[in-house]
Design brief:
This is Fasciclin-like arabinogalactan protein 21. It comes from Sesamum angolense. This protein is an alpha+beta fold. It contains 12 helices and 15 strands. The strands form 3 sheets. It has a 7-stranded mixed sheet. The protein has a 4-stranded mixed sheet with strand order 9-8-15-14. A 4-stranded antiparallel sheet has the order 10-11-12-13, with no helix packed on it. Strand 12 and strand 13 (306-307) form a beta hairpin. The longest helix has 22 residues, at 2-23.
């Protein structure tokens, strides 16, 4: 076991050297820039109503996404519709180029950015796979891959549009089925969110954490959501008497730094009272809030007596990442 752990850590070191060298070349845009970018792209492509909606809901290009964009004329077919909501319902997390869409099974459902609302993908059965027409909820993609920059894909669609049904994630609209999306829809979204989080961590100075997540990818992909406490690369490799050289232990103990199936953003985390127990992916081992977040800068929030340095360094609709300077110690006694 010790040999395997050593080999894993050596692999992580090599990868760290490579990713650190390449991270400097990666573009880094502030949230305000990425938000306005989507609206600007839609406007340039001629989708003026969607552009206004993208600005209204702060739709960001910071995570990979695919937009099935109805024309302004198509939006007139639903005068009572909310265009901002339609935009979310016609947007998928992740990249879906036309050639990939053509390979999906007939009737594949994919959860959109609108919670519990799924788009149904169908394709014509005639002709070669590479030339099949693809339909989104019955509306044809008339301008496939209209925009594709590696982080955002926009397909133009034209036809009658309407809001998605609250039963759209079901395999049928029968009312006797459980009211939840099919498992494959939920899993595909989590996998996309994991890849997005790992990408953002790599380019933000947390490449070792991203690689540790990749090692445990199969376990993490089964979660519905998660809150992760990360350590930056510099702290993981730091040596010395301060104790921060223990960062390499973080890689092996990643599960102890993950709160599974709970999305605790900055507001939710800081609102937890002292003594709150947070279950981790290590069975029977919990984290404890030892300093509440609302006690001011002189008494910053601490979990297992470790200060939370930064909040929401990565945040998508399934994963949130906060920063701590050292691995969490285990507590022998509960906090009073």
């Amino acid at each position: 076991m010790a040999t395997a752990n050593l080999l894993l850590f050596l692999v992580l070191i090599i990868a760290f050297i490579f990713t650190t060298a390449t991270a400097a070349l990666a573009p880094s845009l502030p949230p305000s820039t990425t938000t306005s970018l989507v609206a600007a792209i839609l406007s340039t492509l001629g989708f003026q109503d969607l552009a206004a909606a993208a600005a209204a809901i702060n739709l960001s290009a910071a995570i990979p996404a695919t937009i099935f964009a109805p024309t302004d004329f198509s939006l007139l077919t639903c005068p009572s519709c909310s265009v901002p909501l339609l935009l979310q319902e016609h947007s998928l997390p992740g990249l879906y180029p036309i050639q990939f869409l053509r390979t999906l099974d007939f009737g594949t459902k994919i959860e959109s950015l609108a919670t519990n609302r799924c788009l149904t993908i169908t394709a014509s059965s005639s002709g070669f796979t590479t030339t099949r027409k693809v339909f989104i909820n019955g509306v044809e993609i008339t301008k496939p891959d209209l925009f594709y920059n590696g982080l955002l894909i926009i397909h133009g669609i034209q036809g009658f549009v309407s809001h998605l049904s609250p039963f759209s994630c079901r395999s049928t609209t029968s009312l006797d089925l459980p009211e939840q999306p099919p498992p494959m829809a939920a899993f595909s979204i989590m996998r996309l969110m994991l890849k997005d989080a790992m990408t953002m961590l790599r380019i933000s100075g947390y490449s070792i954490v991203a690689l540790a997540m990749r090692v445990k990818y199969s376990e993490l992909a089964d979660l519905k959501s998660m809150t992760l406490f990360a350590i930056d690369d510099e702290s993981i490799f730091m040596e010395g008497g301060s104790g921060e050289g223990r960062g390499h232990a973080y890689v092996e103990e990643l599960g102890f730094h993950i709160v599974p199936n709970r999305l605790l953003t900055a507001g939710g985390l800081m609102g937890l009272p002292i003594g709150t127990m947070l279950p981790t992916m290590k069975s029977g081992q919990n984290l404890v809030v030892t300093n509440a977040g609302g006690e001011g800068p002189l008494k910053p929030m601490r979990i297992n007596y470790v200060k939370v340095k930064r909040y929401d360094v990565v945040h998508n609709n399934r994963i949130v990442v906060h920063v701590v300077p050292t691995p969490f110690p285990r507590l022998d006694h509960p906090v009073i």
